[in-house]
Amino acid sequence: MLTTASQSPGSLSPPQLLTSLAGLLRSWLPKQRWFAGKGRPVSDLAVLSTTELHPGCLHLLIRTGYAGQPDDCYQLILGVREHLPPRLQHAAIGRADAGPLAGFTVYDALLDPWSARLLLERLRVPGATGPLRFERDVRTVVPEGLAPRLLDGEQSNTSLVYGDSFILKLFRRVQHGVNPDLEVPRALAHASCARVPATVAWFWTTEPQKMTLGVLQPFLRGATDGWTLALQSLASGADFGDESYELGRATAEVHQALALAFATEPLDPRGGARLAAAMTGRLEAAARQVEGLVPYVSRLKAAYGAVAARGPGRTAQRIHGDLHLGQVLQADGRWFVIDFEGEPARPLAERRHAQAPVRDVAGMLRSFDYAAHTRKPRRSQWVKRCREAYCAGYAAGSPWDPRAEAALLRAYETDRAVYEVLYEARHRPDWLPVPMAAIARLAEES
């Protein structure tokens, strides 16, 4: 906690704070897993809002800019202390050498159990702190004093588990509007969909504009994610067909609930041409950044012809938007679907649009392929069996069978693989051969 500064950090204006924080954040931000601007120097930095959550702990929204790229807005929760105790040395960002915080240490307060507990307390008791608004579903009781622990493995956000009872996801890169990971689970809870954990509490800000900042949900104790289960199957040589079939049924069930919770829209057949053009545009943009895509561009475009000719599907509705094995959990033999945020790189408004359910199916089929590539040689028959079982399970719980729309499904798989190529090139170059292998296969099939 800050002890000897002449001013409390919460009383400092954004320009004053920036004087002390700019140098530290320019160095620290690019090292964070959730920072989207990796490989690009932060050319612009501004503090958009600041709120003191408790003495010595600041909630910040900052804007980062890069040459020739749109700005991003990030949520930070920072602590400020004159001396950082040994138990928090791993959380240190650095010692400010300028401005009103000169000589004080700045650290990531989410790694401080005391600050993490106080954050849960704010969610337990609805109300406002400056521009921050804390809300809770009054039907759920959140006990006091739950011990926090930070989850490893998050890519685009940060999650804290409290007492193995609740999980708080803090959105790091935030945008104007309601985040689907708040909107969708709340709507599905009202639709009595038991496949999706209901939202317990949430918080958002009114400044600089309305943005969702975090959601608290029940933590499924003892659950295992689909990616881990798939890798265990591959390692042991066990069949994953039954699990894939039930996962397909669960996906169809969630899609049916989404169709009831949100309005469905008949798809305009002319929309196929627009969607194919958008897919083509994403492909061409990715090829300009990843040279290995260039030889496949003309053949991959042929896959999008099915979308232009047949339209983007039967109906448009709300979907998951980023469905893969890491977004599903199995507990007591039952599948649950989580993380409805959608692809974080896409604009929030686009992620909230009604889309064709086949897009989610394509995402899961690509995930089976990813899992198989962790084994050498690739387990082709394992993938084939999982794909067939998943689609059969989906057809058993849905009015349509993905296998009857093979050309359309291939187009969406191609679009997903192009997204994966760009993501891996930016964030995990060692994984780039996985989607590139799919690109080669899809180009040949097209």
Structure write-up:
With 446 residues, the chain is of the alpha+beta class. It folds into three domains: 9-108; 115-218, Phosphorylase Kinase, domain 1 (2-Layer Sandwich), CATH 3.30.200; 224-445, Aminoglycoside 3'-phosphotransferase, Chain: A, domain 2 (Alpha-Beta Complex). It is 39% helix and 21% strand. The protein has helices spanning 14-28, 113-124, 180-190, 226-236, 241-261, 271-289, 297-303, 305-310, 348-351, 358-372, 380-396, 406-427, 433-445; strands spanning 44-54, 57-66, 69-81, 92-95, 105-108, 127-129, 132-136, 148-150, 157-162, 166-171, 201-205, 211-218, 224-225, 265-266, 315-316, 328-331, 334-337. The chain has a seven-stranded antiparallel β-sheet, covered by helices on one side. Helix 4 (226-236) crosses helix 10. The protein starts with 13 loop residues before the first helix and ends with a helix. The model has no long low-confidence stretch (mean pLDDT 92).
Mean pLDDT across all amino acids: 92
Q: In percent terms, what proportion of residues is strand? A: 15-25%
The main β sheet shows up as:
7 strands, antiparallel
CATH homologous superfamily (4th level) name of the largest domain: Aminoglycoside phosphotransferase (APH), C-terminal lobe
What's the topology here?
Blueprint: H1 14-28, E1 44-54, E2 57-66, E3 69-81, E4 92-95, E5 105-108, H2 113-124, E6 127-129, E7 132-136, E8 148-150, E9 157-162, E10 166-171, H3 180-190, E11 201-205, E12 211-218, E13 224-225, H4 226-236, H5 241-261, E14 265-266, H6 271-289, H7 297-303, H8 305-310, E15 315-316, E16 328-331, E17 334-337, H9 348-351, H10 358-372, H11 380-396, H12 406-427, H13 433-445
Antiparallel strand pairs: 1-2, 2-3, 3-5, 4-5, 6-7, 7-11, 8-9, 9-10, 10-12, 11-12, 13-16, 14-15, 16-17
Helix pairs in contact: 3-5, 4-10, 5-11, 6-12, 7-13, 10-11, 10-12, 12-13
